[in-house]
Design brief:
- The chain is an alpha/beta fold.
- The strands form 6 sheets. Strands 11, 12, 13, 14, 15, 16, 17, 18, 19, 20 and 21 form an 11-stranded mixed beta sheet that branches. An 8-stranded parallel beta barrel has the order 1-2-5-6-7-8-9-10, surrounded by 4 helices. A 3-stranded antiparallel beta sheet has the order 23-24-27, covered by helices on one side.
- α8 crosses α14.
- The mean pLDDT is 97.
Length: 657
């Protein structure tokens, strides 16, 4: 287990480094994370590499028994490079160049960026390839963050056209046919006529826009893979990580594809940021952690754990005493096996002056310092349990293309695909049932329930996988807007919705509508749900059951004939279809019915208390986390505000949902 801080020694007078490293050891650290933003320090002039500063840092750290996570510095290009090659800078949608001065300002399709990145990374790797103190290499920083996943420059335009030419094997007529460009007279005679889908009157072709989204993702994945391959060429046994930011499901890049060739995924976990009135809800923090764990379906690192208030221009909410410590415990509970606090000391200069650290600019050890020290002292006792994998029986499955399709055509002002996933996740989080959040290309065999929220793009291979899963005893949960379009983001002529899944699900969607606030509608249960009454909204599919059992119907005047929720038996398993957005109480009732059919165990806890089990056998531990700002009593024990209590797992009663 690696426990450390993010340390930026280049931002401080070298004379205090010895004291800093002593303090870092006093915290209980065994590692520091360095160099991710220090390109200019290592290459002040083109081709003149000087690693002496970090040589000194590493030697001093090694003398204290500290290991190193070394970052490639490509997230912040030097000014001389931007001056010499201005085309390296990315562009806004309106054609304005992004000005040198922030971070992530480079274009992922710049050949010059590849050239100079290879030079600095190769020089670093050759210099440090025999350095045993470096236990991992971090490539770049937060790919796609802060709008850097989009660029509209000429390099991207040309690369996009080449991407399309390769995809359609140089056949422009095939592209025209696939996109349906006869609509609005948009036929192309050659690939060099195809525009980047920047702002226009009305909107661009949805199929073109989906390929643009795929191209944006591929651009970043290629750059990540390029760095990983380069490091592996020089240091074959190198551990390669990348620090993913939050909000991955809304990026113009598929983080699961970025993660594919990494050794370990890492996460920068910020439950609250400048401009937020208060932290996000505990279940949403958990969802983000479960999503990161799902990128490789394995444990991960947290490379930036919040300790102080955060913000660039707007200073954020300060975590209450023990609250940030509690978030660190939650991260470990949900799959983190090594953790770094951001940052050792808050900066006095530059854009992150209000990103407060373990120490503040006054350099005085106060509460935050001793909270980190206490956390490190405690958590290392459970390293063996926390390094074991998490086994979930339920998975929420997402698809990058489908998420992109909703960015292209929202279809509903109220529909937020990630928020919908979180509703399903919360139904199980509230009763302490672990859930994986995974991409659609993963194996489903070991799950009992898979939930497919708003997967609008129908892909034959994935649908076949779902059919096999259900027939072999699993439960598939479909939702409204599942399997509506083909892989080119077009509607499908002559096929009922859900496309190529209607017979298997036993339903046909005959009409659909989007609802706004104030247009909620009643739903009523039938059969075993006969006593269920509730409300729906956001969107609804009017379902005709064709072999499925109706569980709930719409109960408003015009649509009583249509089903809202159905279930169909498939050999040893089930297929459910949830045709609308449901209020929380009704959704929970359905989810718990589904889990009960599969014999999934749950554990009650009071609101705001999270219970997680880690490890196995006699070594198994129980982590009880109080997210509340007040003392609570749960299952016979008293928890202080934001307390995490860890104990050997006994025979706590669990029930079948």
């Amino acid at each position: 287990m690696w426990l450390g801080v993010d340390y930026y020694p280049e931002q401080w007078d070298i004379s205090i480094m010895e004291e800093d490293l002593d303090n870092i050891c006093e915290l209980g650290c065994n590692v520091i994370r360095i160099a991710e933003f220090a390109w200019h320090l290592m290459e002040k002039e083109e081709g003149q590499y000087d690693f002496s500063f970090f040589d000194h840092v590493i030697e001093k750290a090694k003398a204290k028994g500290l290991s190193i996570v070394m970052g490639t510095p490509t997230a912040t290009i030097p000014a001389w490079l931007a001056k010499k090659h201005p085309d390296i800078l990315s562009e806004f949608e309106d054609g304005r160049k992004r000005v040198f001065g922030g971070r992530h300002v480079y274009c992922f399709n710049s050949r010059d960026m590849y050239t100079y990145s290879e030079r600095i990374i190769r020089a670093m790797a050759e210099h440090y390839k025999d350095e045993k103190a470096i236990i991992a290499w971090q490539i770049d920083n937060e790919f796609g963050h802060e709008g850097s996943d989009i660029c509209y420059c000429a390099q991207c335009r040309d690369a996009f056209r080449e991407y399309l030419s390769v995809k359609f094997e140089g056949d422009i007529n095939r592209l025209n046919e696939t996109y349906g460009t006869t609509f609005w007279s948009q036929e192309y005679n050659a690939f060099d006529e195809i525009p980047i889908p920047a702002e226009t009157i009305t909107t661009h072709n949805p199929a073109l826009r989906l390929d643009w989204e795929r191209f944006r993702s591929e651009s970043i994945v290629k750059f990540a893979d390029f760095q990983t391959a380069l490091l592996k060429e020089i240091i074959p046994n190198a551990v390669i990580i990348h620090d993913f930011p939050g909000g991955g499901l809304g990026k113009h890049v598929d983080y699961s594809a970025v993660a594919k060739n990494l050794s370990i995924t890492a996460y920068n976990n910020y439950p609250v940021w400048g401009g937020q009135k208060e932290p996000i809800a505990p279940n949403e923090i958990a969802f983000g952690l479960d999503y990161i764990r799902g990128l490789k379906q394995s444990n991960f690192w947290i490379t930036e754990a919040i300790m102080g208030a955060q913000g660039h221009d707007v200073t954020g909410f300060a975590p209450r005493p023990n609250q940030a410590k509690m978030w660190a415990y939650q991260g470990m509970a949900r799959g983190c096996e090594s953790l770094f606090f951001f940052r050792y000391r808050g900066a006095t200069k530059g854009a992150e002056q209000f990103c407060y650290g373990v120490l503040d600019a006054d350099n005085v050890k106060r509460r935050k310092f001793y909270e980190v020290q206490s956390f490190f002292h405690d958590i290392k006792k459970y390293s063996s349990q926390l390094e074991t994998p998490i086994k979930s029986e339920i998975a929420i499955v997402y698809d990058y293309d489908s998420l992109a399709a909703f960015r292209i055509q929202r279809q509903s002002f109220q529909l937020d695909c990630e928020a919908e996933m979180k509703k399903y996740h919360k139904a199980f989080y509230d009763v302490n049932v672990p859930v994986d959040v995974i991409p659609a290309d993963r194996d489903l065999t070991d799950y009992k329930v898979v939930i497919i929220p708003q997967m609008i793009i129908a892909k034959a291979e994935f649908q076949q996988k779902l059919k096999v899963f259900a027939e072999h005893g699993g439960t598939v949960v479909l939702t409204y807007r599942d399997f509506v379009k083909d892989i080119n983001n077009n509607l499908v002529f002559g096929k009922q919705i859900p496309v190529d899944f209607d017979s298997f699900a036993g339903v046909c969607m005959v009409e659909t509508e989007s609802l706004q606030k104030g247009q909620e509608f009643p739903v009523s249960g039938e059969g075993e749900f006969a006593c269920t009454e509730g409300m729906g909204g956001i969107f609804r599919d009017m379902l005709v059951a064709e072999g499925a059992e109706v569980l709930l119907r719409y109960n408003d005047v015009f649509y009583k004939e249509f089903a809202a929720v159905t279930r169909k038996r498939q050999k040893d398993g089930y297929v459910y279809y949830i045709g609308c957005g449901l209020e929380e109480a009704v959704l929970k009732q359905i989810m718990r019915k589904i889990a009960a059919e599969q014999g999934i165990l749950f554990e009650h806890s009071i609101d705001g208390v999270e219970v997680v089990y880690r490890g196995s056998g006699e070594e198994k531990i129980r982590m009880v986390i109080n997210h509340n700002a007040y003392e609570v009593h749960n299952a016979g024990e008293t928890l202080a505000p934001f307390e995490c209590r860890i104990s050997r797992a006994g025979t706590e009663a669990k029930e079948v949902l």
